[in-house]
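The freezer alarm interrupted the setup, so I double-checked each line after restarting. Inputs confirmed:
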Amino acid sequence: MKVSLTVNGSAIETEILPLLRLSGFLRDVLGLTGLKEGCCEGECGACTVLLDQKPVNSCLMLAFQAQGHEILTIEGLGKADITGLQQAFLDVGAVQCGYCTPGMVLAAEGLLRANPCPDEGEIRHGLAGNICRCTGFETIVQAVFSESAVRQGMGR
Amino acid sequence: MNQISCRVPLIDGVEKVTGALRFTADMNLDGLLHCGLLFSPRAHARVAYVNAHAALAVEGVRAVFWHENTPAHHYNSSIWFAGQDALKDERMFAPVARHIGDRVAAVVADTEEIARHAARLIAVEYVDLPPIFAPEAALTHAGHALREDDIPTFRNPVADEVFIHGNPEAGFAAADLIVEARITTPRSHHCAIETHACIARPEPDGRILVLSPCQSVFAVQAVVAQALNLPQEKIRVMKTPIGGSFGGKAEPILDPLCAFFALTLRRPVVIRYNRHETFTATRTRSSVTGRMRIGLSSDGRILARDTETLVDVGAYCTGGNYLPSSMLQRLVRLYDVPAERYRGRAVYTNTTPSGAFRGYGSPQIHTVAEITLDIAARRLRMDPVILRLRNLVGPGAIEPLQGLDVGNARGRDCLMRGAAAFDWSARWQIGTGAGRWRRGVGVAAATHINGCYPGFHEETTATLRLLPRGRAELVCALHDLGCGADTTLAQIAGETLGLRACDIVIVPADTDTCPYDLGTRASRMTYICGEAIRRAGTVLAAAIRTAAGLELNAEAGDLRLAAGAACRPDGSGLTLAELAGRLFARGADLPAATETYRAQANPGSYAAHFAEVEVDTLTGRVRVTDYLAVHDVGRAINPMLVEGQIHGGIQIGVGYALYEDVAIDPLTGRMRGDSFSRYTLANASVMPPMRVLLIEEGEPTGPFGAKAVGEIATIPVAAAVVNAVNNALGTELTHLPVTPERVLAAMNL
Amino acid sequence: MMPLAIAVPADVAELRAAIVSSMNPVRFLAGGTDMLIAGRALPEAGLLIDITRVADMAFISTDGSDICIGAATTVATVASHPGLRARLPALCNAAAQCGSVQIRNRATIGGNIANAAPAADLMPVLTVAGALLRLIGRDGMQSEILLGDYTPAHGLITDVILPGAGLLRRSAFVKLGPREDLAISRLNLALLADFQNGCFGAVRIAAGALSHAPLILSFAEAALSGRKLEAAVLRDFLSTLAAEVDAAIPGRNSQLYKRRAIAGLGLDLIAQALGLSPRDRLFEEAVE
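Predicted 3D structure, all chains:
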């Protein structure tokens, strides 16, 4: 069946199999391997993408359901350079092995778009669907917090 | 110091944070074939008949493999060099399945979807054999699995280690208090977010290339060679980026299969396990039942200790036969115990095999010891920090097992500085509070090794070479497991050469281009590889100064390497890029240095962890509300990465204390915790705020004074948390994880 | 059999036509957060109808006497709807505790009901609120059915109706899982109550995860309704909760645990409904 959608700002129209998952479409068809697969049950969040600005698990969605929607993967987050949020992840050591990182960054980006000024509890709750086995989340929470402060400062 | 003690971001961080880094499952090779495996649904059964016709009839299927058409060579996946003596009980596909999830067959096909679909069409007839699930039952059972030649495949116990030091009877006789506890630790799983994967490709010269997210390319080479009965040099292994391992990828599980399929089909092959397969068909942490008896004087001196451990290694030996002695080796370096008796046994059961997992037995044995010691403190009505201080070893202590010097052991500093920072004496009290929510605090100490000395091959070779643009190349078979070892080691190299970490180009571990190294295990990266690199860097620095001296018409000894240049005392000089450029233009060799470092010591790293918990006495729910980790690291090469290791270790340890258990059903052998929805991990919401204090007193034998932190970070956590729960409730909880049910049961409610 | 066909109806008329026209088995897909979980069989044949694009199936109306929620409304929308929070905060609270942000952004209220696992978090709230479901049957006909009578065989849920007459002023939802955030409920409780001048009026309580469907706890309701908020009454209430667990899962492994844990959950439930802290002195007295 045919699907047309926007991925990282580019319009895409292509034929797909009906039961192809969005994660498989993005990774295998479009080659966006920054998207990771960790569990295929919505528990680890490694496959998180933004669907019309909101974080979703791309493994629990069929590709055809993205018809007409806008998808943002890690590849589309920073156009030329890495974003402030990504830089904050690096600066405080919120990246270790890097496998959960793309999903984590997108979940954090979705959180900040929905709630620009989250407190620590809201950050932790907002990232509850993303598992990291390396960092204990401590520096991830710090990175989101510091990026939120920067965005607030720039907004005013 | 321009690099040491600096919070340098990961040198490969940008690729990771942008998703540009290609992990094994992200690699697409021309003509790549995919696999789908069939796993045993029976805990113990002879694979009597395999019918692959239906699977072979599926379009796109290239081959089906099972025990009758694959090599019957037995191997042990835990070896790390060729010819290593180890019990060989594994096969690519066994004629007798020994656990639910054991490999029975594999389909290789054009796509993973086809392969997985076809694998479900393979018909297998099983003849059930009696299974053993309980380690206690296994202890009295030699095992009845039969190999095809009617020889029993396993004999219990697979290890029986006894150690006696001093006179335990006399020690117990003199004791004012004897405390005995029985502690059980669960089977836990690594849960690296990257599931297992491997690629193998036949090379034009008839060799096979294995691309593996592994902890040692040489271990992979040795295991594949053993499994395929090929000479080592036929196998080339390259390490790919690794999405977390924690020991879970230490043993090559997929690699022998992948290599064989690729060789047979003359096409590159990838195997990717999904999450369920990674849970049920790779490795777990062994579960341990420990009985510990401690005799103490009334002032808290340990006079004697008697420990019995029973280790469930699961269905295959792997490295399980040396687990009891590894646990002993870690146990004896923490406290000065004048009389010690230890007996450790390991047994097979028909469950998923165990293997390496962060600490290799150390979290198990220290959990047993630290919970028992806390019970002793409570009975003595003594502050558990003071009790530990009274017995901890200090700098220069000689441990009684191997007679090794524990080096600049700063466990006492960890406890004292930590107790002050945690405000321990004000927060710790005997007796429980009232009301529904009870608070308690707990402490635990730990130690861990630095490398494998005095074991075999505890040495490594590093080569550093000036590159034409003034950067330096590092060749040392390095396996960064995702924790930033490459960055740390690049800082060490950079420090010696006056370069930044990002100027060091690390050649990925490759059996063709790197000298032999044991790999990332036994907390040896910073301490062993780091020292080899420091030495190579020092030699290269001298060579660069000599070359620069000739260019500058200066005494080499007057030159200093800093900020990417060789400088005279007045600051003038030339950059290493200029130097390299001139040498290169002249056709001269660029300076290089190779150093082999053979370890001379195995000092201890030490730690003390402090936890505060709040327990809901109605629901049994435990929340860790505050956490402090104090670590004797000698010197932190990169404090940010050291803290990151500790934070991550705490997450694994909190799970070990409260949530994590693959929960093998005692009646069926089925793993209940076989997915992230049924195996609970500590997520961002439940992790407490964590503080880290580093004790940096320097280890004379370590590079720039550094010691290991990777494994020890997770070792004391579970005991600290459980001790806090016991402090809050006045209970003696000893079965991990401390689930709400167990909390309420311990309160007799 | 015919290979799988997909229909993506744009409005209810198309939806009804798709259902009626199919000679083959029909399955419905909304957020996919249940259907697409690893290890679950996907439909290989028949008709798969994606209902996420049906106009007027994703809405929340709280202005009339009854509350009406379109079945394709996401759980995130339910969690954050101000009008719903004003009238039935328990439903928002339950929705806010379903899965992760990512799950809530896709999962739908209709899916939570149709796939209802025993631990489904919205179910106990909908049960105490006396929810009615509007359905389209296999024959394309519309009908209404009580939540408790519904099985997926009745057809596709299009709307969830919460009759105004059944709503009470206070409501609460609490759950207990293996960890505090993002966990499948081991036990959950929902309550609707009137409470005035320190006294409970009508009370309705249901528990999830004690049975295949939410269980109405009528003895616990009786222990509160018409009674004053005081320690003795709460003690009574807690002992009825334990008795309800004993009756629901006698001999089950989890019985001993759940009969104790439900006390903690029960106090949290009252505290949330009345806007009190669970650490209020009153609750401590109730368990002393």
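Quick read of the result. The CA atoms of residues 217 and 276 of chain C lie 22 Å apart.
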